[in-house]
Design brief:
heterodimer, A: 417 residues, alpha/beta, Rossmann fold, 2 domains, 12 helices, 12 strands, 14% strand, globular, B: 327 residues, mainly alpha, ABC transporter involved in vitamin B12 uptake, BtuC, two-stranded antiparallel ribbon, 15 helices, 2 strands, 74% helix, 1% strand
């Protein structure tokens, strides 16, 4: 009888709605919610962030004396909480602002997490942090760059990552240095998609350059998840800009590099804005035909034996991919949050909030190339910074700028294939 | 009279639900079911009763959502002010779109509505006034009760319940009016209906406009609850599909069909995400999809037709609704 099956399914659905009691929380764990896009269009970013946070959990929960001064690594668990362990409770926001908010609510009210991290896409972070604000639960974001997130007057929202304006300044200063070294950088083109990420970053770069007296010569917009970008590449080929700034998600970034090769177009300099060009699958697919592409990052592996190199190794073992900038920023946010919980010596949200406000981490306590972590009254990290990396051999990015953190000197012009 | 008894029992259960299952997540789940039930019931007017399968209803959903958020973002008004604006804009758009597209039959109408929806999404994505790709936000911290920004889902639940009751009331009234008879005649055979003098084009257009206005209310309520709309979450074609599936699986062309569909699919989606989402394998959608395939395979008329049939067997007669459909 089919009908019986369906009644059964109905009952099953009804049972699932019944209170799921999670009262058996062990005393010795501190639950932190992690809301990421684990399915949908940005699943790759979310899954990598999840792996990065799992590595961070390993570092915090087990004794890792080899990390030296790195916070929370030396002893097992939170020293400030009698060795309690951290447990990240992951939830899938499906890349949807509504689902992100629902899942954040669930983590807060059902899983009883003491703080939240996430949620990758700026739009999802916006709605997810709004519900955390209403419940008075700290929300520490490591990877969303939309400017408005810290302009809402929130008291429970903290952002560790640099934002678009910080990166635009880095691009400008890098180009000024390259110009001083003899490269042509007057004629800059921006290629960007029409998503929230693409349009906002492009307009921020344009305005930062304009403030400093340089106008963007060419602005090319395209629709994300493109199937053909020949006309855009031909436009570049015709206008011959000195520098092309690429703002693209993974699939589009791959398509652009392939199209440039097939149309035999090599701009003198390509600078990518992270995202697609940082994705490990980008390097696998087209790294060999993108040699010499610059990219921005706050992550660099560092010398062997350093905490960053150890983290890179642990991450590679866990996920099979190299740690990319986005996942690394998410991981850094998780460390910042856990360091605050440890310092608060309490799982009370208000005490964690107070500890976050008092956060003052030095560069040697961080895995990212920030100048430190210290939040302003809006919750933005004032010391966030970045560096320029280059895909010199087509397989691995190396830090090339600024000189202080550079492993190698930048190579010009763009080599391609 | 038994029918009324059962209806009042069901109503009592619906009213009592958030008080009995009272954790914040359960209350929010209930509110979401009602929200999608409103949207699916609105779609049902034209998709179910008139048999015109619109896949572009997200346009009207988006109109409501953008009007509500726009009222706040641009004028500092309560998002509630956006509701009538959204209705007016939606009805206007539906009239403009409906006149040419409703002439198309079957799949061609569906395809035309998809095209319109994608067009609107692209236009909004490139319109700075509507927040372009970044979207519009509602009040982050509520200024007063009219901002409809609550911590608890309870106020949303009863608000949505009231609106759903109004939507179903309008639908019921329409179905039992002359227009309802025209619509069913058109759905079963437009040519026959025309030959008997039913004003097919005009009736379909009225149904489309009514449906558009109601859908925009659902969109406005959605935006108020989540406090944000962007082109993907307000105008993404998947929202149309979700609404359509809910109505179809519950029982398109039946008064309570969309409600039944929403009551099954929304919890299924949320709970499977709760249980499986954190694993990061995308299992949520596998389960969700499998469920849809199962229902489509074994009960294409919708869950409610099944319930009606079981009901009829017990009472030894054909259920009213199915008899009317000639099933």
């Amino acid at each position: 009888m089919i009908s019986k099956h369906f009644l059964g399914l109905l009952c099953a659905a009804a049972i699932c709605v019944l209170p799921a009691d999670h009262a058996f929380a062990q005393e010795k764990t501190v639950k932190v919610g992690a809301v990421f896009p684990l399915s949908g269009g940005s699943a790759s970013a979310g899954v990598h962030a999840k792996a990065a946070i799992e590595v961070a959990m390993d570092i915090i929960n087990n004794a890792h004396p080899e990390f030296g001064n790195f916070p929370l690594a030396k002893s097992a668990g939170f020293a400030g909480l009698g060795g309690a362990k951290v447990e990240a409770v992951f939830a899938d926001n499906q890349g949807s602002p509504a689902t992100g908010q629902n899942q954040t609510l669930r983590l807060i009210t059902e899983e009883k997490v003491v703080a939240i991290t996430g949620a990758y896409q700026s739009g999802v972070t916006l709605t997810a942090s709004a519900i955390a604000e209403k419940y008075g639960i700290p929300f520490v974001n490591g990877e969303s760059v939309a400017a408005n997130l810290t302009e809402r007057g929130f008291k429970w929202f903290f952002r560790v990552t640099p934002v678009a304006a910080d990166f635009a300044r880095i691009f400008f200063e890098f180009l000024a240095d390259m110009k001083a070294a003899g490269a042509k950088t007057d004629n800059v083109a921006i290629v960007h998609d029409t998503t929230e990420y693409g349009t906002s970053v492009a307009s921020v770069i344009a305005s930062v350059f304009k403030e400093r007296g340089q106008t963007i010569a060419l602005d090319i917009a395209y629709t994300s998840n493109a199937t053909d970008v020949q006309s855009q590449v031909l436009q570049l080929k015709e206008k011959k800009p000195d520098v092309v700034i690429m703002i693209a998600y993974t699939s589009d970034a791959i398509l652009y590099q392939k199209t440039m090769q097939s149309l035999d177009y090599k701009p003198p300099m390509i600078i990518a804005d992270d995202s697609g060009y940082s994705d490990p699958s980008f390097i696998k697919a087209v790294g060999k035909i993108s040699q010499g592409a610059f990219n921005r990052s706050s992550w660099s592996v560092g010398p062997p034996g350093s905490p960053t190199a150890l983290i890179a190794e642990m991450y590679k073992k866990k996920s099979g991919d190299d740690l990319d900038d986005t996942a690394a920023r998410a991981m850094q946010a998780f460390f910042v949050l856990c360091e605050a919980i440890d310092r608060a010596g309490s799982t009370e949200p208000a005490k964690i909030q107070a500890a976050l406000k008092a956060t003052d981490l030095k560069p040697d306590q961080l895995m990212m190339g920030y100048k430190g972590v210290k939040f302003d009254e809006k919750g933005q990290n004032m010391l966030a910074a970045g560096l320029i990396i280059q895909l010199q051999d087509g397989e691995n990015y190396v830090a090339v700028w600024p000189k202080a953190s550079a492993g190698k000197a930048p190579v010009l012009p763009y080599k391609g294939w | 009279m038994r029918r009324w008894l059962w209806l009042s029992v069901a109503l009592a259960l619906v009213v009592a639900y958030p008080l009995v299952l009272s954790t914040p997540f359960q209350q929010r789940l209930g509110a979401l079911v009602l929200l999608y039930a409103i949207a699916a019931s609105a779609w049902n007017v034209v998709g179910g009763y008139a048999g015109q399968v619109s896949v572009g209803h997200v346009v009207f959903f988006g109109c409501g959502a953008y009007a509500a958020m726009g009222a706040y973002a641009h004028f500092g008004l309560s998002p509630l002010v956006g509701i009538p604006v959204g209705i007016v804009v939606s009805v206007a758009i539906s009239a403009v779109v409906g006149v040419p597209t409703l002439r198309l039959s079957g799949h061609y109408f569906s395809m035309a509505t998809i095209a319109v929806a994608e067009l609107v999404r692209l236009i909004v994505t490139n319109t700075d006034y509507l927040g372009a790709a970044v979207g519009l936000s509602g009040p982050t911290v509520p200024r007063n009760v009219f901002d409809l920004s609550f911590i608890s889902a309870l106020p949303y639940y009863y608000l949505f319940l009231t609106i759903l009751a109004i939507t179903l009331g309008i639908t019921w009234w329409m179905v039992n009016s002359r227009m309802g008879f025209y619509l069913r005649a058109i759905r079963d055979s437009e040519r026959a209906a025309r030959s008997l003098g039913a004003p097919a084009s005009r009736t379909k257009l009225y149904a489309f406009m009514l449906s558009a206005g109601l859908t925009s209310v659902a969109g406005a309520l959605y935006a108020m609850m989540f406090g944000f709309v962007d082109p993907e979450s307000g105008l993404g074609i998947l929202i149309s599909v979700k609404i359509l599936i809910m109505a179809a699986l519950g029982g398109a062309g039946l008064l309570f069909g969309p409600l039944v569909g929403a009551a099954i699919l929304v919890p299924l989606e949320e709970i499977s995400n709760n249980l499986l989402g954190g694993k990061g394998a995308g299992l949520t959608f596998v389960l969700y999809g499998a469920m849809i395939v199962l229902i489509a395979r074994f009960q294409p008329g919708g869950i409610l037709t099944l319930i009606n049939r079981v009901w009829a067997k017990r009472n030894g007669r054909m259920p009213k609704t199915e008899a009317a459909r000639g099933a």
